[in-house]
Each structure stands twice: as C-alpha cells, then as structure tokens.
From TrEMBL:
Keyword Heme: no
Superkingdom of origin organism: Eukaryota
PANTHER family referenced in this protein's UniProt entry, alphabetically: MITOCHONDRIAL AMIDOXIME REDUCING COMPONENT 1, MOLYBDOPTERIN COFACTOR SULFURASE MOSC
Protein's name according to its UniProt entry: MOSC domain-containing protein
Keywords per UniProt: Membrane, Transmembrane, Transmembrane helix
Molecular functions (GO terms): catalytic activity; molybdenum ion binding; pyridoxal phosphate binding
Positions of transmembrane segments: 20-39
PROSITE patterns, per the entry: MOSC (PS51340)
Residue span(s) of domain MOSC: 213-382
Length: 387
C-alpha cells in the first residue's frame, strides 16, 4: 500500500503528460477546420471577396427592392466617345436608342475608330441632335467645339437622301479588330468639311463617319452563344444600363482609397459622375448597389404596375468590362491616373467569367422591339439571375 502511494505522483505526472499530448493532437487536427471556417466567413461578410463585389456567382437577392426602380437619366452619345446629351425621353430600335453612337470618328489612313482612350479631349466635342420634322432629312447633327480650340461648328443631315449618299465615300470601318462595319464619310455644303475641322481639333487626319445600313451583329456571350442582335458603333451591344446606387458605392470606395495607389486628396471631395461610365439608361430604387448584376430581363414603361405587352422586353446579356475611358473627366477632358479604374480593379474584378482579369461596371443589353423610354418610367423585373 505504501509502495503504491509512493508511485502516485509518478502516475499522475504520466497521466497529465498523456492528456497534454492528446489535447495538442486534437488542437492540431482542429486548426485546419477553424481556418476554413474563418476563410469562408471573411468571404461572405458584406458579400465581398478579393475577386469582386459578389464573392461568388450567387448574390443575395433579398437586399434588392425590385418593386421601386425607376429611370432617372437617359444619355445619348451621338458621336462615339464624344459628349453625351441628357434627354427626357428616347425612342429605341433593335440597334439602340435613336441616334446613340450612329456616328464615329475614324482615322483617315486605316478607317479605324478613334476613341477617347486614344484622344481624351474627344469628350469635349459636343454633338447635338436638332430635329426638323418638316425636313426630309429629319433634322441635323450639329457639332461644336470648346471655344479655345479655334474650331468652328458644323452640321450634317441626320438622314441624308440616297442621292447624297452616292457622293459620300463608302467605308469598311474597323472596331475592335474587325473591319466589317459599313459607314459613310459625312459631308457638308457650307464651309470647311467635317474631316478638315475634326482633323484640326484631333491633331491627326480623321473623318466623321455615319453608320451605313448593313447590319452589324453583336458578339455572342456565354449565356447567348447565338446572339444576333444588331448595333451601331457601340463597343459591343446596343444598350448599357447602370444604377445610381452602384455609382454612389464606387464613390465611397474611391474615398476609402485616397492616398493609396495614386488616388489623390481631391477625391475626398470630388464627385464620381455617372457620365464617366457612358451608360444609356440610369436607374435608381433597388436600395442597394449593383442590382444590374442580377437583372437579366425587364421591361420599362410609365405604368406603376407591370402590364403584359406594354413595352418590349430588354435583356441584359453581359457585364460591361472597363478600360481607361472612365478615367477621363467628361467636363474637362483630363484623364485621371487612377480613378476609377484602380478602384474598379480592386473591388469589381473577376465578375465576367469570359474576361476575369477585367473589372466591370454596368451591364450590356439588347432590345427585342421598338419602343420609347422616358425619365420617370418604371423598371418591371421579369427575370433575375447571373448576367
């Protein structure tokens, strides 16, 4: 008995050592599982991840109010990459909003489209549609320039007669490496030609070209491999939709990155204008940003409640990938070295599976019929999913 009592401290010490070893083994086994749980939580908080706002391709639909979305702005860009015109309403066809990007500026040497990615001050060229119902040409496209440029304004017919087109040079215009867009070099009967005036402003030899009648078909997307929708001189698709909530969210992210990655102090005060992103239809009312990311099919009209066949269906077919163009200030023509592209690359990259290295803002759409859209119209959501 005395011997067993003497051995008791040794037995207790050995048992404690065994218990400690067991606990260490258990902890080592649990560490990987704890890491996975924390990693998953970090991805799900706020619906964000390193690869973009969504964090996955299954966004939380419950945060959006789909019953209260309205059109707040309509923007027409008559000449590609030039100043936008805000209008109270616009007719649309399969090719897009009337007169949106019906014209473009092309290099005289190779007929390639020139954009503000190449010449930032293009955004200061001001094209305006001057309708004239009494004229067989439907009115004029009037083009003016900043006063300090020394370039005079000119105008060309909206819908030139066939006889006039026979005297205009016919071109195969190149955009994104494809030279399959039919166009005509615009002419005027008064003063210098549009080509001369634009070449002086741009600092290189260019023409103003109007889209011809030959259809230009949009590129297919993953969801629409057989897409056959037509377009004018848009980068890819006849319509682009963006929400005010998305722009406001990006502005907050810009302010949160002031002092980082070349984002200057002025961005703690400056406004990120929706015009930088060059949408056609701007909406508001979903209650949270990036609703357009999950809006796949909708109609738009003046009725508060959805009515069958009140307006054609609009389908969003892809996210709009972004380049340096939104960095150009639409009112000064000055290109910012960081905003918003660097912020977009941090928060909105990897959302387009076809181009995962690019950032996205807004969504591209196609139209299924002719109609009219007005500021104040209601958006009627028909389908949601992954755009």
């Amino acid at each position: 008995m005395i011997k067993h009592m003497a051995d008791l401290p040794t037995i207790l010490e050995q048992g404690l050592a065994t218990l400690q070893t067991s606990w260490i083994s258990i902890i080592l086994l649990l560490v990987p599982f704890a890491y996975l749980v924390l990693l998953q939580r970090s991805k799900s908080v706020g619906g964000r991840s390193d690869k973009g706002e969504a964090g996955s391709h299954a966004p939380d639909y419950s945060k959006f109010d789909t019953s209260n979305i309205r059109v707040t702005k309509i923007l027409i860009h008559p000449i590609k990459s030039c100043k936008a015109t805000s209008v109270p309403e616009a007719k649309y066809t399969l090719e897009g909003l009337d007169n949106d990007r019906r014209w473009c500026i092309v290099r005289a040497d190779n007929n390639a489209v020139v954009t503000a990615r190449d010449v930032a001050k293009m955004v200061l060229i001001n094209p305006r549609i001057i309708p004239d119902p009494s004229s067989s040409e439907g009115g004029r496209l009037e083009v003016s320039f900043p006063k300090e440029s020394g370039c005079e304004a000119f105008s060309v017919p909206l819908n030139p007669a066939e006889e006039a087109l026979q005297d205009w040079q016919n071109l195969d215009i190149s955009l994104w490496g494809k030279d399959d867009i039919e166009g005509y070099v615009c002419q005027t009967d008064i003063g210098r030609s549009p080509s001369e005036i634009l070449s002086q402003y741009m600092g290189l030899s260019v023409h103003l070209a109007m889209k011809g009648s030959r259809l230009r078909i949009c590129p297919p997307t993953q969801r629409f491999p057989d897409l056959d929708a037509p377009s004018y001189f848009q980068d890819g698709y006849p319509l682009m939709l963006l929400s005010e909530e998305s722009v406001a969210a990006m502005q907050e992210r810009v302010r949160g990155m002031v002092g980082m990655q070349g984002i200057e102090e002025q961005w703690s005060r400056d406004t990120l204008q929706v015009e930088r992103f060059r949408p056609n239809i701007v909406v508001k009312g979903a209650g949270a940003p990036f609703f357009e990311d999950i809006l796949t099919e909708f109609t738009v009209d003046s009725h508060r409640e959805s009515l069958d066949k009140a307006s054609p269906i609009i389908q969003l077919v892809s996210k709009c990938t972004r380049c340096m163009l939104p960095n150009v200030h639409p009112e000064t023509g000055v290109r910012d070295k960081a905003v918003p592209l660097k912020v977009l690359m941090k928060h909105r990259r990897g959302l387009d599976p076809a181009q995962p290295s690019l950032s996205c803002m807004g969504c591209n759409g196609i139209l299924t019929g002719n109609g009219v859209v007005k500021v104040g119209d209601w958006i009627h959501v028909r389908k949601t999913g992954f755009v």
